[in-house]
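Purpose: get a first structural picture of the assembly so the mutagenesis plan has something to point at.
Setup: two entries, given in the order below. No constraints added.
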Amino acid sequence: MSNLAKIERDPNYQELVRRRSSLGWLLSAIMLVIYFGFILLVAYAPKFLGIPLGSGVTTVGIPVGLSVIVLAFVLTGIYVRRANSSYDVLIRKIVEENRS
Amino acid sequence: MKKFAWPSAILLASMPAIALAAGAVEGGAKQATNWAAIGMFVGFVGLTLAITYWAAKRTASAADFYSAGGGITGFQNGLAIAGDYMSAASFLGISGLVYTSGYDGLIYSVGWLVGWPIVTFLIAEQLRNLGKFTFADVTSFRLGQTEIRILAACGSLVTVAFYLIAQMVGAGKLIQLLFGLDYWIAVVLVGGLMMIYVTFGGMKATTWVQIIKAVLLLSGATFMAGAVLYKFGFSPEALFTKATEVHPKKLAIMEPGTLISNPLSAVSLGLALMFGTAGLPHILMRFFTVKDAQAARKSVFYATGFIGYFYILTFIIGFGAITLVSTDAMFLDGSILEKTKSGIAAIKGGSNMAAIHLANAVGGNLFLGFISAVAFATILAVVSGLALAGASSISHDLYGMVIKGGNANEQDEIRVSKIATLVLGVLAIFLGIVFENQNVAFMVGLAFAIAASCNFPVLVMSIFWKGLTTRGAVVGGFLGLVSAVVGVVLSPAVWEVTLGFAKGSAPIKLDNPALFSMAIAFAGIWLVSMMDRSKRAAVDRDGFDAQYVRSQTGIGAASATAH
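Result (structure tokens, whole complex):
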């Protein structure tokens, strides 16, 4: 598998792996922190989520819950944007250079 | 028959589909036959059968059958994934939960959504680059084919079976209520149509049925939420104010209630919701229907957007139902209202009917018919996706790879798949009728727990950990599967509610076992792999580098064969 060794030595490949895995795991960690932070709030501080915003009946919990949903979408968007703009370029280079 | 409290039902099952079964059981009586609904439903079935006919003519190869020839675009696949995920239960169940408990419904919506980013970051592209038809293609990429395929098939089939039974029972109950049909007719109808879509049209028909349904469901829900907001001058505050005035729990519906009380239980449930999503075979299969990794990545992005948007709509719909349904005698059961003095408790047909009644309240009989037809279409589409995933696991993993050692004739494999679909269909109809009056709510919870504790750990370890060996994956995977099943049986939900033992006697206090069953699976995989000194283990570890390069670059990945 000389081709395999060649790809592994390719700086483009190394950059791709480094960048994709660091972003992927970082965003996963952020998502976990956000979600389990929310779950722990629900479990330990339900009254905090029940504090009304201003003088109305809408509580802190509503924007907090909705922002977890929105953030999940935004994080996915960040990953896809980065992948579309830079990972795909690297992958194309790797594929071209290693065409046997 | 055992009646069960609705909040505990949703907590224990805690997944799409649950609720459906739950509320409908309470509902009981049939509605009058709704002709507008039946008319629209017949229209939907006619359209989908035409699509199936079209797809059948274009389905010749195994790739056509299992993965629609890889010809689905990222956007279409995003809709189809969202369709697979937005079951009738997440529509009716979550809006029903918001209707009875307010804020608690949002907690569940959030849990169901947050698995998607993880799928995007860690799984989607790798899956597309390494696999062909089923997720077992990925887990068995460098590991022992026979053992891993059997493990994956067990994980897939058990997940699919429990999910399918819950959907069938829910479907029967719902259709009975919506259309005034007999329970058994409803179950036979769903099972029969599912068999037609899958055997004739394969993945192509299943995907398009799913896409059409997703569009109908999203438009219907958008209209309903829009109509509710319109009535309150597009002010959520006005909507919430009115809801807290008429709901018997008053301001308590604006904060977390009693559904999640024990922190450990909450975390365990969170794990099952988050990682179960990443282990559902019918969802994972969708990533093989697109051209390449880039399209796979885009499709999860669209799916996350659609699903998140949909959950926000169900929240508005639930609050809309509090204000417009629980205050209108037309939708309430007079005798219950007299007893309980609560419009929330007195809703006709149980809380799962909240969204359906709201459709009537904002759009009249015709829109009621539309939403009922969409709900039925939703069940059909989800059941078809499940059946296809189960049948693929039997034909591709068990028949093609284990029995024929990878040398199966393509046409034979497709034939086995079609036979498997028919068997699954008949079995689903039979079990659907057997379980008519049983509490099946725990089954969806079980499906998610198994997906999170057996399929997901093996999948993620096989993609990322070089040290994983065949023996480690098999031992850890089966440990996860068994501990998830045992954990559900010994949980309060099944032990006390379904089996009828004394309250508080359940040996395990967690409503969902994911916390320990996932830990057991990962620990088992790691320990056994580390200690594995077999010849096979050396082969397994040596294969990782080539697999990793392919998972990252897609070089050598199964190419698309779009027409």
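The radius of gyration of chain A is 21 Å.
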